[in-house]
Write a structure and sequence with these properties.
By secondary structure, the protein is an alpha+beta fold. The protein is built from 6 helices and 7 strands, in the order αβαββααββαββα. Strands 1, 2, 3, 4, 5, 6 and 7 form a 7-stranded antiparallel sheet that branches. Helix 3 crosses helix 4.
């Protein structure tokens, strides 16, 4: 039987496992993105933290910063939400890598085709993380189709906060730094399993 977990009392070994999930996910995402873009992409995980929902907007530059958020709901043996979030320059850089555009268009709105490309990038990155998590834990995890939103960070992050605030107030934030030889940008992968799902993840790993 899987017990509910108290995220305020998580121990170092459990934290290390969550951090390792981030690192392995980044490795998978790097491979998938490199294949999609047909170019070498480097990705590393400089930071993994369990943060309260209210502190998440500060990490990406404040509640009023305009960001791209790609949101998925999780089903199967893990339920919850996950989101991949980038600021506008990072999003533009990724789209340009994929579509061969110019960095000069940094302030222009995305075209429909570019939005579709962004959604697909989010899909691939999120899929890589989910695949890692599923492979490590032997749990069946599926995700919804991606929902893309461009809005202020506070508005985008209010969706999971409202949905999951009633069962917990923390999310696992995996900061990723990715890029090519010319430029590196930051993205933020936010995993918000239910408390029962945190317990399932850690129990499956013998913790």
């Amino acid at each position: 039987m899987v017990s509910h977990i108290d995220l305020d009392k998580i121990n170092n070994m459990q934290y290390d496992v969550l951090r390792e999930i981030g690192n392995i996910g980044a490795g998978n995402a790097t491979t998938a993105l490199s294949q999609m873009i047909n170019s070498k992409i480097d990705m590393k995980v400089p930071n993994v933290e369990l943060l309260e929902f209210k502190n998440l907007p500060d990490i990406v530059g404040g509640a009023e910063k305009i960001v791209v958020g790609i949101l998925f709901t999780l089903q199967g043996q893990i339920d919850g939400m996950m989101m991949f979030m980038m600021d506008m320059p990072a999003s533009r850089h990724l789209v340009n890598l994929l579509m061969g555009g110019s960095e000069e268009g940094g302030t222009e709105e995305f075209t429909e085709m570019e939005l579709s490309a962004l959604k697909e990038i989010g899909n691939i990155i999120a899929g890589a993380y989910l695949s890692s998590l599923s492979g490590l834990t032997n749990l069946v995890i599926t995700s919804s189709i991606p929902y893309l939103s461009i809005d202020m960070a506070g508005a985008i992050l209010s969706v999971p906060a409202i949905e999951f605030g009633k069962i917990g107030d923390k999310a696992l934030l995996i900061e990723t730094e990715f890029g090519d030889d010319l430029k590196a940008v930051n993205g933020y992968f936010i995993l918000i399993p239910s408390l029962k799902s945190y317990g399932a993840i850690l129990s499956s790993l013998g913790l």
